Amino acid sequence: MLKIMPRIAAKSELDIVYIGFLLGHGGDAMLMLDLATGMAARGHPIKLVVPQLETSVSLAELCQERGLPIDRTPWIRSDAWQAKQNPLDLVRLFRTYRAPILHRSTPKPARKSPTQISLMVTKAIQELMFR
């Protein structure tokens, strides 16, 4: 059953904010750009927000060419190994960019990072030791 959520009470000039936890130059960024372009063409006020990285410059240029507003912010961390986010920066991010619809884009990692692998191994060892 589809549940319809009420509109957010906070005042917002935007209908949709696209938040990209991505590098800004791959297929995930292009997909987000296409989605935002389509919704803007339908008359919805939108904004894209991506990490402030060298790799997101080309995405910002594509947004400018299409007339789409984009902010590159240091509040989002992203790298090839899926950087951990700072909780305070995320609070700042979501308080600053408010809209009834928040669309979050995250890339799927091609492989597990060394940190992810070590956490998985540590968890498995703990489970075996404390059975």
Question: What is the compact description of this entry?
Answer:
With 131 residues, this protein is α/β, with parallel strands linked by helices. Helix content is 39%, strand content 15%.
Task: Kindly describe this structure.
With 131 residues, this protein is α/β, with parallel strands linked by helices. The chain has one domain (16-129). It is 39% helix and 15% strand. The chain is built from four helices and four strands; from the N terminus they run βαβαβαβα. The protein has helices at 27-41, 57-66, 87-96, 114-129; strands spanning 16-20, 46-51, 70-73, 101-105. The protein has a four-stranded parallel sheet with strand order 3-2-1-4, with helices on one face. Helix 1 (27-41) packs parallel to helix 2 (57-66). The N and C termini lie far apart (40 Å). Residues 1-9 have low confidence and may be disordered.
- Which spans have pLDDT < 50 for at least 5 consecutive residues? 1-9
Shape: globular
Helix tally equals: 4
User: Main beta sheet: strand number and arrangement?
Assistant: 4 strands, parallel
The computed structural class is alpha/beta
Number of domains: 1
- Overall mean pLDDT stands at 79
Secondary structure: helix percent: 25-40%
- Largest beta sheet: strand ordering: 3-2-1-4
Order of helices and strands: EHEHEHEH
Q: How large is the radius of gyration?
A: 18 Å
Tally the beta strands.
4
Strand-residue proportion:
15-25%
First CA to last CA: what distance? 40 Å
Protein topology:
Elements: E1 16-20, H1 27-41, E2 46-51, H2 57-66, E3 70-73, H3 87-96, E4 101-105, H4 114-129
Parallel strand pairs: 1-2, 1-4, 2-3
Helix pairs in contact: 1-2
